[in-house]
Design a protein that fits this description.
Length: 299
């Protein structure tokens, strides 16, 4: 659980973990050098607290996973909340589906006041789905350690779209398993990192997809997904550009996606959103549901 200056929400997040009544549960928290009282709050709870200023989020997740023998792992954020009983149900599903590398579920998006603003139910996500667009909810995922180790842990060089990269690599070798229940509440607000870096998030998504299809051990069927996947990543990047006011880049991404795989335009959420923002400028800047920093049976 990587945290930095999360005093406003950290108590709710930690208490939602401790209320899971899942045993054994290891909660490993890496604090990157908080100065807002986060550390004082964390010291009130029975968590394995480690303070390492400057440690990156992906490095913190990897160290947490490597420092435990837990069969199932995930990551968590200092402003999100688990629903009661979520971890036990996710773990039971992993036990019942030994072929699955991870399980995932639905989530509610909450605002700064904790009010639900949207519900996400992604449904089953195959490798083909994840390559086309990252629409699963990372905050609900529980991962089999052996699957994470086979795929490689989090890419510590990535600041954005690291969850997309990770679940693509896991899905190369293992199917995921979707469970239709609401496992988590995750908070999105104007101060979150992704919402301040839309263009960089979009560019990171394109890089994730391009680099995934450079992997030498992809099967022929997996390689065949590449044109559509690159088109989907460009649509997502185009939407991110337009949100930041870079309409020219948005039009360029739309053109490139249509040249690569025109049918993708209406197959991914970013397609209609990009077209809508290009044709109807002036809509308010959204709070993009961010993916990336969370944790679970080792949390």
């Amino acid at each position: 659980m990587p945290v930095l200056n999360e005093a406003r929400f950290i108590r709710e997040s930690i208490e939602s973990l401790l209320a899971q009544h899942y045993d054994p549960l290891e909660i490993v928290v890496y604090d990157g050098g908080s100065t807002d009282g986060t550390l004082d709050i964390l010291r009130e709870y029975p968590v394995d607290l480690r303070v390492e200023p400057g440690l990156g989020q992906m490095a913190a997740i990897n160290r947490g996973w490597q420092g435990t023998s837990a069969e199932y792992v995930t990551w968590w954020a200092g402003d999100d909340r688990y629903k009661p009983g979520a971890l036990a149900r996710l773990a039971a599903e992993l036990r019942d589906h030994p072929e699955a590398g991870f399980v995932h579920a639905d989530a509610d998006i909450i605002d700064e006041q904790g009010m639900v603003t949207r519900h996400l139910a992604p449904g089953p996500r195959s490798l083909a789905d994840l390559a086309l667009a990252f629409t699963m909810v990372s905050q609900t995922a529980l991962i089999r350690r052996s699957a994470a180790e086979r795929a490689g842990l989090m890419d510590e060089t990535r600041r954005f779209a690291a969850d997309w990269d990770f679940f693509l690599r896991v899905s190369q070798y293992h199917p995921g398993h979707y469970v239709p229940f609401t496992a988590a509440e995750y908070r999105t607000h104007s101060g979150s990192e992704d919402n301040q870096n839309y263009a960089r998030v979009g560019e990171a998504g394109m890089d994730v997809v391009a680099r995934f299809f450079e992997r030498p051990d992809l099967t022929p069927a997996q390689r065949a997904l590449r044109p559509r996947a690159l088109a989907g990543a460009r649509l997502f990047a185009g939407w991110c550009y337009v949100v930041e006011g870079r309409r020219g880049d948005g039009w360029r991404m739309l053109r490139d996606a249509l040249l690569a795989a025109p049918s993708v335009l209406w197959r991914v959420p970013a397609g209609p959103r990009l077209v809508g923002r290009l044709l109807l400028p002036g809509r308010p800047r959204p709070h993009r549901p961010r993916g990336g920093w969370r944790q679970g049976a080792t949390v």
